Amino acid sequence: MEKHRLLITLFGATGDLAARKLYLAIYRLYKNNYISEHFALIGTARRPWTDDYLREVVLNSIKDEIDDQAHAEEFASHFYYQSHDVNDVDEYHNLQELALELEEMYQTKGNRIFYISLSPSLFPIITQHIKGSGLATEQGYNRLIIEKPFGNDLNSANELQEQLQVSFEENEIYRIDHYLGKGFVKSLLNLRFSNIMLKSIWNKENIDHVQITLAEEVGVEDRGDYYENSGVSKDMIQNHALQMLSLVAMNEPKDDEPESIRQEKIHILKNLHQYDSVAELQENVVRGQYGASESNEYKAYRDEDKVDAESTTETYFAAKVLIDLPEWEGTPFFIRSGKRLNGKYTTIHVQFKATKEGVPGNRLMIEINPDLAYRLYLNQETIGYTNELKQIELSYSPDEKEINAMPADYERLILACIQGNLNNFNHWLEVAHDWKFVDNIQRLWKEAPKPDFPNYPAMSSGPKAADDLINKQGFDWFD
Ligand SMILES: NC(=O)C1=CN([C@@H]2O[C@H](COP(=O)(O)OP(=O)(O)OC[C@H]3O[C@@H](n4cnc5c(N)ncnc54)[C@H](OP(=O)(O)O)[C@@H]3O)[C@@H](O)[C@H]2O)C=CC1
Ligand SMILES: O=C1O[C@H](COP(=O)(O)O)[C@@H](O)[C@H](O)[C@H]1O
């Protein structure tokens, strides 16, 4: 197995994401020998931490997965901390000094990954100084990982992109969408294109409609201030849901190169049908906001911390999406996502057409989260003295051993970046088209009458209007 040589500089090392996900992901890569003696990480943020304190935090983050304490401590010894306000130009020179020292010590060959895990408003200042201060390497590679959200609308995303591209080439920028690191999202293309049975019928002639659901039980937790300016349409639809839709709808790429895959995804996202009036929007899009649960155990969104008592931010979104391309003419893609729903599940259902009246069409269900499974629903003659049909299910779920061996989303994506594989990261144009779709909805919502919120109780299946949206097309939500 190739052991990679690299130095990671993590901006936002004292933050929530680092503690909850990033240290663990990097530890797993260390445990699995992708990185070892030729690896070091500089953690940076304003807090006056020390190397030892950061190492303690790292050990605490990985504690549930340690099976060899000495090995875990050896891992933590590769972590260094430098207090640094990203607005302070001089500090970047100190970072560069430490980077050179560590490069020498760990023989990392000048390969540098800059992971920016802090507020997006600080992305441009950091990238500008990385290049301006000489922190970018001239020997190995420079790769930039940036977290979502990439802007708050198309304008701000454009501005951010312009600032980033002054310092980094498009093929050096790894825009994270952690859903693209989830096992059964990542494997969607292989499922579709390595099975002739699926590949040959995956088209408008045979697919009746598609349902993509990203349901969450959690509320906004302590992120009320962020969520008020985001809502589910920007938090989950603009990125995760549209990315999944593009993977379901895209044509087969000519090869496995990131450029080819991205080109096909862009082709779909660019052609998402844009609702052109409030009436069309209301016909096809439902927004919702949770009220208190029926038992009053869970509070209403408007009573959450840092949320306006009159807030009109949507915590639920469902839409019928069409793709204005001949290859998908007339095939609806239903997408929905919401907080404080009655379960946590991420699923894709592909409903095939019926072969004749009275016989249900076949259906493929892909369970992505929390369980992983493929379920294929077929028609089979009931055994006995009859030729009546019943629906049967053929299913596959990875076993416990496979699940345990499966990399977690961040682990998979950080490894892909280390390997220089851009396949599961978003190209700028994907992000731009995602925003165009969401911006148009936001614009029309502003013209529409004020929503009558709250319109679904916490821990329920969502607003009734979302059922009506799909029922009037002659379908039901499957989950
Ligand atoms: N947390 C999560 O689950 C998810 C987070 N994200 C994204 O990841 C990124 C980080 O999120 P999260 O970890 O939750 O955020 P936090 O608010 O927990 O952390 C922010 C980090 O930024 C540092 N920071 C803030 N200002 C400065 C500054 N001027 N100079 C140097 N460091 C600074 C803070 O450290 P200090 O105060 O010590 O300076 C802290 O380490 C965001 O883009 C977020 O949208 C994406 C998906 C999920
Ligand atoms: O990006 C985000 O995703 C999480 C849901 O991620 P999952 O992996 O737990 O499904 C969501 O809670 C959060 O609001 C959003 O920012």
From TrEMBL:
GO BP, sorted A to Z: glucose metabolic process; pentose-phosphate shunt, oxidative branch
Known EC number: 1.1.1.49
Pfam families given in the database record: G6PD_C (PF02781), G6PD_N (PF00479)
Domain Glucose-6-phosphate dehydrogenase NAD-binding as annotated: residue spans: 10-186
A GO term, aspect molecular function: glucose-6-phosphate dehydrogenase activity
InterPro entries: G6P_DH, G6P_DH_C, G6P_DH_NAD-bd, NAD(P)-bd_dom_sf
Keywords, alphabetical: Carbohydrate metabolism, Glucose metabolism, NADP, Oxidoreductase
Residues binding substrate, per UniProt: 178, 182, 216, 235, 339, 344
Binding site for NADP(+): 46, 85-86, 148
Assigned protein family: Belongs to the glucose-6-phosphate dehydrogenase family.
Protein name: Glucose-6-phosphate 1-dehydrogenase
Organism name: Ruoffia halotolerans
Lineage per the UniProt record: Bacteria, Bacillati, Bacillota, Bacilli, Lactobacillales
GN (gene name): zwf
